[in-house]
Amino acid sequence: MTQRSNSLISVQDFFQHYSEIVAAIVCAVLVFMGWVCLQIGCMGLAFLALPIAYIIGGYGSAKDGLTTLVEEKQFDVDLLMIVAALGAAFLGVWKQDYSLIIDGGILILIFALSSGLESIAMKHTERNIEKLMELTPDTARVINNQQEQQIQINQLNIGDIILVKPGERIPTDAMILSGNSSINQAAITGESMPVDKTVGDEVFAGTLNGNGVLQLKVNQHPESSLIQRVIKLVEQAQTEAPPSQQFMEKFERSYAKVIILTGLGLAILPPLFLGWDWETTIYRALIFLVVASPCALLASIMPTLLSGIANGARHGILFKNGAQLEKIGRIKAIAFDKTGTLTTGKLNIVDIIPVAGISETELLQLAVAVESVSEHPIGQAITQFALEKNIPRITAINVATQIGEGIIGKVDENHIFVGKLEWIYQHNIEVIPELVEISDHLETDGKTVVWVA
Questions:
Q1: Which of the four CATH numbers 3.40.50.720, 3.30.450.40, 3.40.1110.10, 3.40.1700.10 does domain 360-452 have?
Q2: Is 292 left (phi over 0), alpha (psi -120 to 50) or beta?
Q3: Where are the beta strands (DSSP E) in 279-405?
Q4: Are 400 and 409 in contact (CB under 8 A)?
Q5: Helices and strands: H and E segment counts in the chain
Q6: pLDDT > 60? residue 296
Q7: Fewer CB in a 10 Å sphere around the end CB: N or C, the chain?
């Protein structure tokens, strides 16, 4: 009973959230059904399906158009579209050219689809905002009089001391008081590699702590954190119309007013001044309204931009608003602050340079022995490469991570160091000069060099 009840609620939520696209789909099915029925001569069913399609697909536009007319005393493109569609249907019945009824249905369908796609894009953007909000934990571990206490994020004050353990997300923007760790800032800055942080460095809410234990001092209110500012910018993007949309909104009001008044003029004035009969006059006025409806142009801008913003957010790219997204089309050059190489952030082993009579397999075995317990992306890449090559595993003991430097362990009474060259030097390990030259060339090519000693 509970399972069925939950499924009913989910179906209700779907129709509630996506009512516009559902209406557009139903309208499309009914218009197609009406067209098929007209082709095979099933007139009764056609004249049942098509009016329902008009009502379901055109309800939203008719409501918006009439609301604008009543409350703002303005014509808009929604009202123009409804008048044009009804005019097409009237012409079809009048001249018994029932394909015109299909044309009116398609006109309504275009606007219904545009509205539905816009609502989907808005929902996607809302979901991406929710995902951003989920990056920050609901509570923080505050240290007060040497005691730990879990409190809600919104209860944090400037100056509070919070504790963040390995693998936890940082609850708010803060400064490191004690400890050091590698912080994964990909969710905020897009950097694929963790950034080493130590005492005095700033850390951001929503970023992921590595292996270190950190004591942080809150230096601003949680609602002013970087991630909260990003969320506000994305929310503003939903309400701020880009220049093209602003222009079209101004244009459509004037355009709709001119077209409707011109249509009325064409329906009334020719019989009075040109001697036209009323049937021909009204027929031509309706044709004018149908032809003058700019449905595709006016219905295309905002759904496209909202879809682009939502799609970008889903892939970790945040646009301040639609205006910034529009500017991309005018970009002629992009400058990247990189060492000559653009990467996807996925690390792979590309070169192995063994020395001192050690084979590649032995070198990998020693590296994996200590890196297999590491959560650092470089360590995981080395371990994954060894798995793919079916390298036999050996075990290291007393493995310890030196944050920002490397990792050390013991294999068969030998200490194994895996890390940066400077760290290797600190342990008074002799390094062949030719290897340093090779390392410099590899780093110039944009590669990250890891030393094993």
A1: 3.40.1110.10
A2: alpha
A3: 397-402
A4: yes
A5: 16, 13
A6: no
A7: N
**Which carries the bigger pLDDT value, residue 102 or residue 94?**
102
- What tokens were used for 193? 């590699």
What does the alpha-carbon distance between residue 369 and residue 363 come to, in Å, rounded to a whole number?
A: 10
Tens of pLDDT, residue by residue over 319-362, are 766 677 777 888 888 887 766 667 676 788 888 888 878 888 88
The stretch 104-123 carries a mean pLDDT of 79
- Which range is least confidently modeled, 48-62, 113-127, 195-209, 414-428? 113-127
Residues in the chain: 453
Residue 284 has pLDDT above 70, yes or no: yes
Whether 337 is a known active-site residue: answer yes
| Dist. CA 272–CA 122, nearest whole Å | 50
Confirm if 244 and 52 have CB atoms less than 8 A apart: no
Domain 139-224 shares a fold with domain 360-452 = no
Edge-first strand order for the sheet with 181-184 is: 195-197, 181-184, 208-209
| Residue from 97, 337, 351, 445 carrying the catalytic annotation | 337
Q: How far apart (Å, rounded) are the C-alpha atoms in residues 106 and 35?
A: 11
Reported as a pLDDT band with limits 50, 70 and 90, residue 9 is very low
Structure tokens at 411: 């294999």
Q: Where are the domains of the chain?
A: 14-132+253-306, 139-224, 360-452
Per CATH, is 139-224 categorized as 2.70.150.10?
yes
Residue with tokens 């002629």: 332
